[in-house]
Amino acid sequence: MATYSIALDIGATKTAAALLAGNKIIKKVVKPTGAGQNKTKILKNISGLIRSLWIPNVKKIGIGLAGQIDAKKGIVNSTVNFNKDFRQIKLAEILKKEFKVPVSLDNDVKCFAQGELKFGQGRYFNNFLALTFGTGIGGAVIIDQKLYRGKNNLAGEFGHLKIAGTWSGETPLCGCGQKYCFESLASGRAWHKLAKKYGEKSADKIIAPNIAVGLANLATAFNPEAIIVAGGLMDHKGLFEKVRKEFNLKVPYPVLRQTRLIKSKLGENAILLGALL
Ligand SMILES: [Zn+2]
To answer: pLDDT tens-digit profile of 64-116?
Structure first.
């Protein structure tokens, strides 16, 4: 008999929740996270989603959340794009009490990278970077087929690297309170801001070189075999090709042009699969 589990991908905009039999997603629902609401309401949204998928033989719950996570203790330390009171939340413990099964919690993009490593295109590389382009930009580092976490589980927070990108009008402020962050110039949210003002075509034109600057910096820092990207922004027609072209112009060493830029085939499902690892 298959082992059933529930996985959640909690982003700043929406939460995807899935019921799995082994590694197979058999049911999936997507709901707004309500990240702007207070912590009690956010928690209620999360447990409501789990309950909507619950069947009696679920054996574990795995969660990927867009924030700074203490994966060992299952605590959400802080988040940039959620309500300010959603911090220091013992999320794993709270849900374990409610559902009486083990709960694991990690940063969403760290889950994504591990999902890719085990089930996706990451299987073919020893060293790769994984990035998601959603409301913000998340990242993770795989070295010798292992997730590199850094001292505070913060390695890979590429969204807040400062980049010299271009913009039109006043430079926007990032959710972290600073300017010139990669995600304030190249995320889905940044794209929407530009598209509203200048139209979708112009938004793509401004965003593509900004994404390429960030990726070229990362390729220079890590010299990985591949960079695997996911997120709605990457599905825009022609954008990925533009990024690749600009990337080749921006890397400082010709050999870095050999870095494989890959669009994830698993997409956001890699977060759900990785959350259960
Ligand atoms: Zn920032």
So the answer is: 999 999 999 999 999 988 999 999 999 999 999 999 999 999 999 999 999 99
Which of the four CATH numbers 3.40.50.2300, 3.30.420.40, 3.40.50.850, 3.40.50.1980 does domain 4-110+270-275 have? 3.30.420.40
Closest Cα partner for 177 from 75, 76, 81? Answer: 81
Distance 56 CA to ligand 1 centre (A): 42
Angle between helices 91-99 and 39-53 (to 10 degrees): 40
Q: Separation of 246 CA from ligand 1 center, angstroms?
A: 23
The Cα–Cα gap between 156 and 178 comes to 18
Please, what's the b/e burial string for 189-212 (b: 16 or more CB within 10 A of its CB; e: otherwise)? bbbebbbeeeeeeebbbbbbbbbb
What residue spans define the domains of the chain?
Answer: 4-110+270-275, 123-262
Q: How far is CA 206 from the centre of its chain?
A: 22
| Dist. CA 57–CA 221, nearest whole Å | 45
What is the CA(255)–ligand 1 centre distance, in A? 30
123-262 — its CATH code?
A: 3.30.420.40
Task: Tell me the pTM.
Answer: 0.92
Residues 6+ apart with CB under 8 A from 71: 104, 105, 106, 107, 110, 149, 153
Q: Which residue has the tokens 């009486």?
A: 100
